[in-house]
Amino acid sequence: MAEYKPFTENALKILRARYLMRNEEGEFLDKEPADLFRRVARYIASAEKTKKEQEHWAGKFFDAMMARDFLPNSPTLTGAGRDMCLSACFVLPIEDSLDSIFETVKNAALVHKEGGGTGFDFSRLRPKGSFVKRTQGIASGPVSFLRVIDSATEAVKQGGTRRGANMGILRVDHPDIEEFIRMKIDGKSVNNFNISVAATDVFMEAVKADGVYDITDPYHKKVVAKKSARPIFDLIVESAWAVGDPGLIFIDRINAHNPTRGLGPIRATNPCGEQPLHEYESCNLGSINLGHYFSPAAKDLFDWDRFGRTIALAVRFLDDVIDVNKYPLPQIEQMTRANRR
């Protein structure tokens, strides 16, 4: 039997508070970390074809997690064997209609309930002050509806252990871009959102040249103004320095390297911004502890062979997650099983 490095008291405290399974009376069903990782390993390995393969890979997955060489995202640790969603990150669409907006609010709540985080592109919403012909009213703009989702997120405790996380994105050529950039300056609003500006190649070239770029109404698809690029870029920098937001998403670069461009352009990322996703797509995250592969005896002081084996195991684990997963929406299941991120 393999020997594993013991868990620190702080690690055990976090595991008991967030990850070890309990029954309805609050009693621990997972008595110790090994029970947690055995539960997860067996459930994920059930995706394998034969009983022999399931037992083999369950053992491999268990060893990697017990050694803390590899760990999956929190929803997999908390949800495996509980008929819950195991994915951490999702992107949901928002079209320019109340039906679409509030359908997205509902769908985001379902995702948050299962322990996931959501990304949104608000760029298709008409700008604040636009005339709405059908109701003879005035549009309130994308920032107002971002706040609606923020309030809904506040009301839904995510997966029973943490509140929901969101990414809100707006294209730099949207008429409301300055309001969007300034949104967090007061330090109090939209606490459940990271926000990022989708910066285009045209905008960045205008910044370098100290030039202007077009502002386009997404509803009428017409250029409605021209703005100097550097003041907008400076505003982004000043706000990011003051409150940590907005970030920058280089949306044209993402789509230039989009491996599934036949599905259309990618518009948004997961809440932390590291994974671009199509709308209704989800992804599974995992982490490898690089410090475990330092070896004074190895070439370059790094055990590349063992590292490669862990990468292969982690990819297999995360691919199995896709097959045993329980998805919050049928559209997400269809897209995720097709793309397998």
What number is the mean pLDDT? 93
Q: Strand content of the residues, in percent?
A: 15-25%
| CA radius of gyration | 23 Å
The class by helix and strand makeup works out as alpha/beta
Q: What's the total count of β strands?
A: 16
Number of contiguous helices: 12
Tell me the count of domains. Answer: 2
How do the strands line up in the largest sheet?
Answer: 12-9-8-3-2-15
CATH topology title of the largest domain: Anaerobic Ribonucleotide-triphosphate Reductase Large Chain
Low-confidence stretches: none
Report on this structure.
42% of the residues lie in helices and 17% in strands. The chain is of the alpha/beta class and 341 residues long. The two termini are 34 Å apart. The model has no long low-confidence stretch (mean pLDDT 93).
Descriptive labels:
341 residues; alpha/beta; Anaerobic Ribonucleotide-triphosphate Reductase Large Chain; 2 domains; 6-stranded mixed beta sheet; two-stranded antiparallel ribbon; 12 helices; 16 strands; 17% strand; globular
Describe how the helices and strands are arranged:
Blueprint: H1 9-19, H2 33-45, H3 51-66, E1 70-72, H4 74-79, E2 89-91, H5 98-113, E3 117-121, E4 131-132, E5 137-138, H6 142-155, E6 157-158, E7 162-163, E8 166-171, H7 177-182, E9 193-199, H8 201-209, E10 212-217, E11 222-228, H9 229-243, E12 247-250, H10 251-256, E13 268-269, E14 276-277, E15 282-283, E16 286-288, H11 304-324, H12 330-339
Parallel strand pairs: 2-3, 3-8, 8-9, 9-12
Antiparallel strand pairs: 1-16, 2-15, 4-5, 6-7, 10-11, 13-14
Helix pairs in contact: 2-3, 5-6
